[in-house]
TrEMBL record:
The protein, known as: Transcription antitermination protein NusB
Gene encoding the protein: nusB
InterPro entries membership: NusB-like_sf (IPR035926), NusB_fam (IPR011605), NusB_RsmB_TIM44 (IPR006027)
Organism (species): Deferribacter autotrophicus
Gene Ontology terms describing biological process: DNA-templated transcription termination; transcription antitermination
GO molecular function: RNA binding
Task performed by this protein: Involved in transcription antitermination. Required for transcription of ribosomal RNA (rRNA) genes. Binds specifically to the boxA antiterminator sequence of the ribosomal RNA (rrn) operons.
Alphabetized HAMAP family for the sequence: NusB
Species lineage: Bacteria, Pseudomonadati, Deferribacterota, Deferribacteres, Deferribacterales
Record has Transcription as a keyword: yes
C-alpha cells in the first residue's frame, strides 16, 4: 500500500477515534484499545499513523481550538461548529503543524472528509480555514 493511501486510511481511523473520544470522554488509551478491538484493520502502519495522529490531536486540542477560534467570524465560537467539523479541523491542524505530508494533500483530505461527513458547505468552510492558517503560519511542504 502506498504512503498516500496509508495516510488516507489512517486519517479516517483517527477521525473516528477522535469523534468517539469527544462523545465519551474516555481516556485516549482506552479509546485506542477499544477502537482496534472492534475494527478489523490488519495493517500496522495504518494503526500506528492513526494512533499518532489521534494522540497528537488530543494533546494539542486546546492549542488547535484557540487557533480555530481566531479564524471564525466575529460572534462565533468553536462550540457553534458541529462535532465532525471541529474534529476535522483539529486533525487538519495537527497535521499541518506536525505532519510530513504535503500541505495540498492535507487540505484535500480534510476537505473531502468534511464533504463526506457533512456537506459541500462544510467542505468549503474547512478548506478555507485550513488554507488561511497555512498561509498565515507560512506552512509549505
Amino acid at each position: 500500500m502506498d504512503m498516500q493511501r496509508l495516510r488516507s486510511k489512517g486519517r479516517e481511523k483517527a477521525f473516528q477515534m477522535l469523534y468517539q473520544y469527544e462523545m465519551t470522554k474516555f481516556k485516549p488509551g482506552d479509546i485506542i484499545s477499544q477502537f482496534w478491538k472492534l475494527n478489523n484493520e490488519k495493517n500496522e502502519k495504518i494503526k500506528l499513523f492513526a494512533n499518532n495522529l489521534f494522540n497528537l490531536a488530543v494533546n494539542k486540542k486546546e492549542f488547535a481550538d484557540d487557533i480555530i477560534s481566531k479564524y471564525l467570524k466575529e460572534g462565533w465560537s468553536i462550540d457553534r461548529l458541529t462535532e465532525p467539523v471541529k474534529n476535522i479541523l483539529r486533525l487538519g491542524l495537527a497535521e499541518l503543524f506536525n505532519g510530513e505530508a504535503p500541505v495540498y494533500a492535507i487540505l484535500d483530505e480534510y476537505t473531502t472528509m468534511a464533504k463526506e461527513y457533512e456537506d459541500e458547505k462544510a467542505a468549503a468552510f474547512v478548506n478555507g480555514i485550513l488554507d488561511k492558517i497555512r498561509k498565515d503560519f507560512n506552512i509549505e511542504r
